[in-house]
Amino acid sequence: MLKTVLKIEDGDAEEVGAGETAAVLASPAETAADCRSRAGVYRLLSGVFVEEPTGEFIEALRTPAVLAELAEAGLRFDADFLTTPQDMLLEALAIEYTTQFAASGGFPPVESVRLTGRYKQQPNFDTMQTYKRLGFVLQPGRFEVFADQLGIELMFVAELLERGATALEQGDAVTHRRLEKEIKRFWTQHLGRWVRGYSRLIERTAEHSFYREMARFLGGFAAEEIEAMSLRIEDTDQARLEVPKDEIRVEFNPNEPVCNGCMTDALSTTLSAPDNVRRLEEMRGLNKLHDLRDPG
Questions:
Q1: pLDDT digit string (tens) for 33-89?
Q2: How far apart, in whole angstroms, are the C-alpha atoms of residue 25 and residue 273?
Q3: CA distances (Å), 80 to each of 47, 56, 57, in order?
Q4: Which of 25, 33, 28 is nearest to 8 (CA)?
Q5: Residues near 122 by Cβ (< 8 Å), separated by ≥ 6?
Q6: Parent domain of 31
Q7: What does the alpha-carbon distance between residue 84 and residue 66 come to, in Å, rounded to a whole number?
Q8: Residue 47 in contact with residue 53, Cβ under 8 Å?
Q9: Burial 81-100 (b: 16+ CB within 10 A, else e)
Q10: Are the beta carbons of 161 and 31 closer than 8 angstroms?
Q11: What's the CA gap between 184 and 190, in Å, rounded?
Q12: What is each CA distance from 192 to 33, 94, 184, 276, in whole angstroms?
């Protein structure tokens, strides 16, 4: 799937004889291009799950070139996506999004909900701290967005890949390796624990072929990313229809002041590092991973 979507060419690879070992090392330019291609897939999937799709997003997906790419990747949309008039399609997708992801009885694309049965649990706080540590903060959009929402987590990895590509293009291999480790850590601690099972659940329960096929695409992409990074991660989600609610754990010290200015010097230094001075906007402009030093 990835080879088709990311346009990874086999090239004119030489045949390897018996007993020989092939070691193919990509150049920095090739690795940077691969990072940006992967980031594009993360952004696409982020746009699918972060909220109900816009007309511009759907129009772009239904162009012949993009549909051909997705078909080569194994996606098989039905007529409900391919031939339905745009206004009717947008209405149908908005209803499906609400029913599947937002309404009571649905399956919210939120890590805390999938792993603990509740919103704003430890995964939400942990992802927020990771974003801050690397110089990003989630900006509010039209609706409340959780730090551990699927679209936000995917967008975060896309931004790290973009940073890594830029570092390579500037000859900074050290920064690229550091960002690679951050991506692996984020997959191990977050995405890898729930995305595969969740994608199977949505593929099974979606009524509209758009969400069914995009969920299948997400599952295949996640499996290939995990394999490519040589990670071993348990699928904690397990595509459960019902997730038991964990006991609520409240940690509160009544003697500790409540304020907005309790950032440590170490964290402040980390967030003001030169390589963190870059504004990062969410793909569809409604929510932003925003550099903390950008006044906009």
A1: 999 999 999 999 999 999 999 999 999 999 999 999 999 999 999 999 999 999 999
A2: 31
A3: 19, 18, 16
A4: 33
A5: 112, 116
A6: 26-242+264-291
A7: 17
A8: yes
A9: beebeeeebbebbeebbebb
A10: no
A11: 10
A12: 24, 28, 9, 25
The Cα 83–Cα 62 span in angstroms is: 9
Instruction: Report the alpha-carbon angle 98-124-40, nearest 5.
Output: 65
Q: Which tokens belong to 292?
A: 């903390």
Which residue type, as a one-letter code, is found at position 286? L
User: pLDDT for 239-294, tens place per residue?
Assistant: 999 999 988 764 444 444 444 433 334 333 333 333 433 333 333 343 445 544 34
Rounded to a whole number of angstroms, the distance between the first and last alpha carbons of the chain is 38
Measured CA to CA, the distance from residue 240 to residue 243 in angstroms comes to 6
- How many angstroms separate the CA atoms of 140 and 151, rounded? 14
255: in domain? no
3-state helix, strand, coil in the chain (%, to 5): 55, 5, 40
pLDDT band, very low/low/confident/very high, at 120 (cuts 50, 70, 90):
very high
Contact by Cβ (8 Å): 291, 276: yes
Q: Is residue 10 part of a domain?
A: no
Look at the block and give the residue holding tokens 């805390």: 112
**129 part of a folded domain:** yes
* Residue 130 to residue 144: CA distance in whole angstroms: 19
Strands (E), the chain: 136-139, 280-281, 288-291
**How many domains, in total, are found in the chain?**
1
DSSP lists the bridge partners of residue 280 as 289
Asked if 197 and 240 count as a contact pair (C-beta separation under 8 A), the reply is yes
CATH of the domain at 43: 1.10.3480.10
**CA–CA separation, 61 and 188 (whole Å):** 30
Asked if residue 97 is part of any domain, the answer here is yes
